[in-house]
């Protein structure tokens, strides 16, 4: 029987968890809301998830635990340093030590975007290149960098914050993700329409639906988003000259022509010599990539 790991993917709104093996098979899975009250509440929820996996899959016998979390992580110790903007108080936390002490299993922790990228890089059907950039377009923009097949983390494990490059647009300074993320798409659509956030629920998905139904403002907002995403990716193409870029997030799964349009925009802004031969493709594992990557990471470190 292939070794199995309990895999946890901590998100800002939900925790996805399950049991995986070295082949990337999902042996069992579930999901629960992320508590927003405190870091202690999140740890308690993670421990409850681990107990649930163990009870539901006793015959598989997990040998380790892999955890992906927002923020900066010292991967040598599994210590959450901080930087998880969507999880207030989630910092200065010896997470791996706590989980190992409470469960008796070795625990390995890394940044969630790194592990999402790792899952997609190792098991995604479109991943075949040694030098790869992975982007996930969601509330923010996350990502991972693979150089010669190895995940790059930076000298102090703080690298790979791909959405946080300084960016200036429409007279405003910020980070690339402030303008080009799906949250940015919603914000800029509301600026165009005068809608308020407190009105009826508005999401990036609903804007794409409005565009498909022929709404001009929604189409213009999406065109603007494609320009912003492509312009930012062009910078990364010029810096890394990758073999491949993989784009994840809900929009890559539901909008068949979005990737092609982003590719055209990125190539328009990038240096011709840098983008020659670069593939830009959609991710294939969806929202399971994070905990598949977490399980693989734990099993490969154990």
* pLDDT averaged over residues: 92
Count of discrete alpha- or pi-helical segments spanning 4 or more residues: 11
Largest sheet report? 5 strands, mixed
Spatial sequence of strands, sheet with the most strands: 3-2-1-4-7
Cα separation of the termini:
17 Å
Helix content: 40-55%
Query: Which blocks of ≥5 consecutive residues have pLDDT under 50?
Result: none
Descriptive overview:
The structure is a single chain. 41% of the residues lie in helices and 25% in strands. With 302 residues, it is an alpha/beta fold. The chain folds into two domains: 4-118 and 288-301, Nucleotidyltransferase, domain 5 (2-Layer Sandwich), CATH 3.30.420; 128-284, 2-Layer Sandwich (Nucleotidyltransferase, domain 5), CATH 3.30.420. It has a five-stranded mixed beta sheet, with helices on both faces. Strands 10-9-8-13-14 form a five-stranded mixed beta sheet, with helices on both faces. It has a two-stranded antiparallel sheet with strand order 5-6. The longest helix is centred in the last third of the chain and has 25 residues, at 216-240. It starts with a strand and ends with a helix. The mean pLDDT is 92.
Give a brief outline of the structure.
The chain is an alpha/beta fold and 302 residues long.
């Amino acid at each position: 029987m292939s070794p199995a790991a309990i895999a946890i993917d901590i998100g800002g709104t939900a925790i996805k968890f399950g049991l995986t093996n070295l082949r990337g098979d999902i042996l069992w899975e579930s999901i629960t809301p992320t508590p927003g009250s405190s870091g202690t509440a999140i740890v308690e929820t993670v421990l409850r998830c681990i107990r649930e996996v163990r009870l539901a899959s006793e015959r598989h016998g997990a040998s380790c635990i892999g955890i992906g979390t927002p923020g900066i992580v010292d991967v040598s110790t599994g210590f959450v340093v901080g930087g998880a903007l969507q999880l207030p108080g989630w910092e200065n936390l010896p997470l791996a030590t706590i989980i190992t002490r409470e469960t008796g299993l070795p625990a390995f922790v890394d940044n969630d975007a790194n592990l999402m990228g790792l899952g997609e890089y190792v098991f995604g059907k479109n991943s075949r290149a040694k030098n790869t950039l992975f982007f996930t377009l969601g509330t923010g923009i996350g990502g991972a960098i693979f150089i010669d097949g190895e995940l790059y983390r930076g000298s102090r494990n703080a690298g790979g914050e791909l959405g946080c490059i300084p960016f200036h647009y429409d007279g405003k300074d910020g980070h690339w993700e402030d303008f080009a993320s799906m949250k940015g798409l919603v914000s800029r659509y509301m600026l165009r329409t005068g809608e308020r956030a407190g009105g009826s629920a508005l999401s990036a998905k609903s804007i794409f639906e409005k565009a498909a139904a022929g709404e001009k403002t929604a189409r213009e907002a999406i065109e603007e988003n494609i320009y912003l995403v492509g312009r930012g990716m062009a910078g990364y193409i010029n810096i890394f000259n990758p073999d491949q870029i993989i784009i994840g997030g809900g929009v890559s799964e539901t909008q068949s022509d979005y990737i092609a349009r982003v590719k055209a925009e990125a190539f328009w802004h990038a240096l011709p010599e840098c983008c020659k031969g670069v593939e830009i493709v959609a991710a294939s594992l969806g929202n399971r990539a994070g905990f598949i990557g977490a399980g693989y990471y734990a099993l490969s470190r154990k």
